[in-house]
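Whether sequence alone determines local backbone shape is best considered at the level of individual chains. The sequence in question and its structure tokens are set out directly beneath this paragraph.

***
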Amino acid sequence: MQKFIQNIKGDRSIWAVVALLALFSFLPVYSASSNLAYLYGDGNTLQFLIKHLAHLTLGFVILFGVHRIPYHYFKGLSMIALPIMMILLVLTLAQGTTIEGANAARWIKLPVVGVTFQTSSLASVVLLVYVARYMARIKEEQVSFKQTIWPLWIPVFLVIGLILPANLSTALLIFVMVIMLVFVGGHPIKYIASILGVGLLSLTLFILSAKAFPGLFPNRVDTWTSRIESFFTDEIDTKEKDYQITQANIAIATGGMMGLGPGKSIQKNFLPQSSSDFIYAIIIEEFGLVGGLSLLFFYLFLLFRLVVLVYKTSDYFGRLLVIGLGVPLLFQAFINMGVAVSLFPVTGQTLPLISSGGTSIWTTCVALGVILSVSAHRKDHTGSNEHSSNPLDILSETI
């Protein structure tokens, strides 16, 4: 055990937060799985706890293995992995999987082992590493917008376009994170504005096409539209999306300040996706506002450690990696918590390291492994950025 601990490198504070979040996740996942146990099993929640343990164990094996790889190797790995992920996304989308009549082509079954895997999650990590590599490569160059189209924006729009038909929230999240990353990387504002315009136009054309030919993407556009409309109009109907929000609100209201206690949630028996998309509502019901705010504090502390790591890392690619992979994880966490408390429309985003689900845990561990690789293999920042106008250098100066 001591030898294993000695092999753990990188920021110990990040390791501690990740481990605490993972350990805490067993309580809400075990409690919230009772609904699934009765719907799809014999009522025994132990199997879901064991499954969650297996997912986390494999996740931490991945995390440990990735963090031992020097982070500069991910430059080449991203160029190799990106075409592979595009092929997997095409295969996933071509399956035409539907859930209750709606297009949900998000998962692909791995051969031999028979495990289903959500390809869009890993594709987002690979794409952001690829974008970080490209931005680091052109840091000292004056490139025109035309020169960035093929090496940067074509791959970005291909990946997002393959994810969009089945998962709007993930596609939009990836697009926003790419824009954030290229902005921080010093990409000219006028180029970013052009890409935002192209993205908005592409989304509009997609929605119009889906409306004109509904057989291509069954019910997806209608689902997105109804979720947004119900969020802004406060209309309640009998559809599952409204049912989820209602039950989540009841769970939060029931929790009060201190909560009902671990395992004593009532709404877990009525709230769909209580162990994944809406697990934050169950956490507040069982641990109260104190538990919900404590969890928020841990994510904010992780954000603080990422900012410190960016400041201490001198290598430009390493800094972009920390931002490009760290911010999406925290953004996803805040979206998940915001949905549970009715700040955002239903998106289907999980709570990193807390929600059940193999793909979300594994891809989170890959991203964290890359970040910890930066912290383990970085060189301390010692240079002066007095005359730099790059957002990354300005950030370093202001800390």
Observations:
- The chain has 15 helices and four strands.
- The chain has a mean pLDDT of 83.
